[in-house]
Amino acid sequence: MNRITRRLTLTRRLTLTLALAGTLAASAAAFAVAEDQSLTIFDWAGYEDPSFHPKYKEEHGASPTFAFFGDEDEAFEKLRSGFKADLGHPCSQSVVKWREAGLLQPLDTSRITGWKDLNPGIMAMKNLATTDDGKAWFMPWDWGDTQLTYNSEKVDEKDVQSLKAFADPKFKGRVSIGDNVDDAYALASLAIGLKDWTKMTDDQFKQASDFLRQVHKNVRLYWSDTTDIVQALSGGEIDLAWAWNDATAQSVLADAPIKGKKDTKEGISTWVCGYVMFKDAPGNKDLAYDYLNAVNDPEVAKTLVGDWGYGQANTKGMAGVDPAVLKEKGYDNVEKFIDKTLFQSPVPADLKLKMIAEFEKIKAGY
């Protein structure tokens, strides 16, 4: 199966998953792909693709069971209400929250092949993968960015040199940003010149919120998952988006004239996601470590980078990717845009609550 066929197959599966979830009026967490029930992974839809864990399926004859969430706040509430799984897939801005809520147990790094090969820059981020007491709570796996994305046949690149283009009246009705408070305020923070949102002042919060209100005037839709935004971009429904870099990768595979622009005046927002083990994991712990080793296998980087446009945290994996593919996906010289990056690190709890409340008002037109 070639890359385009595989991607289209995955897109159809994602669409079916969402349709079934809506028909059943069930949450994403309640809808699962059940195979080996000795291990349950609580994940984003799409990551059940066996190409992410080929050695696990080869060794055990089946994939684990997967249960899905739509965003990390939804996942957090499901877990606190008693939902049980073995491994979860949160991102950088949520790991501390999940850990402090008592949802996680430490990882035994001696059982994770390639732990020492994980990207030193990511591993050095304070209280992310490890805490000061030396305990490991999070295995970084996939990382990427949220960037300005546009239809190159309908938008002149000179008009999107700045993220302020999202608020330009010329794009009224042609814009989409994620229905995701973290990505929204990452965009707004960058637009007002703030690279470290953990130090956002009350005045900067107002400036960022005011910018999002201006963007809202241009928004045609708030996308909720990659399938939504790829269809909107590729189908010509919208021309300008604040989207994850896999939106560009998948649109290109579908032969759509979509480009990602990392080098805007203000830059991009970078995030890292990975796997955690839940405190009351009911399944087989040996299988859990087999799964972690499978996704951390360096060979998986070829799929992550080539088909999804994401980086793998395993440095050996990235080193094994074709240099031409790394260049095409923007990973040939990561340092060149680090100075224009807002890393989505955890923000103070009171600020996050303010962001959530304000973003809901903005989307409602207030």
Write the layout of secondary structure elements.
Layout: H1 3-23, E1 32-33, E2 36-44, H2 54-60, E3 64-69, H3 72-80, E4 87-88, H4 92-100, E5 104-105, H5 120-123, E6 139-151, E7 175-178, H6 181-191, H7 202-216, E8 219-223, H8 226-234, E9 240-244, H9 245-253, E10 258-261, E11 268-278, H10 285-295, H11 301-308, E12 311-312, H12 315-319, H13 323-329, E13 341-343, H14 349-363
Parallel strand pairs: 2-3, 2-4, 7-8, 7-9, 11-13
Antiparallel strand pairs: 1-3, 4-11, 5-11, 6-9, 6-10, 6-11, 6-12
Helix pairs in contact: 6-7, 7-14, 8-9
Please describe what this structure looks like:
38% of the residues lie in helices and 19% in strands. With 366 residues, it is α/β, with parallel strands linked by helices. The chain folds into two domains: 3-143 and 271-331, 3-Layer(aba) Sandwich (D-Maltodextrin-Binding Protein, domain 2), CATH 3.40.190.10; 144-269 and 341-363, Periplasmic binding protein-like II (D-Maltodextrin-Binding Protein, domain 2), CATH 3.40.190.10. It is globular. The model is unreliable at 1-31 (pLDDT under 50).
Biggest beta-sheet profile: 13 strands, mixed
Q: In CATH, what is the class of the largest domain?
A: Alpha Beta
What is the CATH third-level topology name of the largest domain? D-Maltodextrin-Binding Protein, domain 2
Strand content: 15-25%
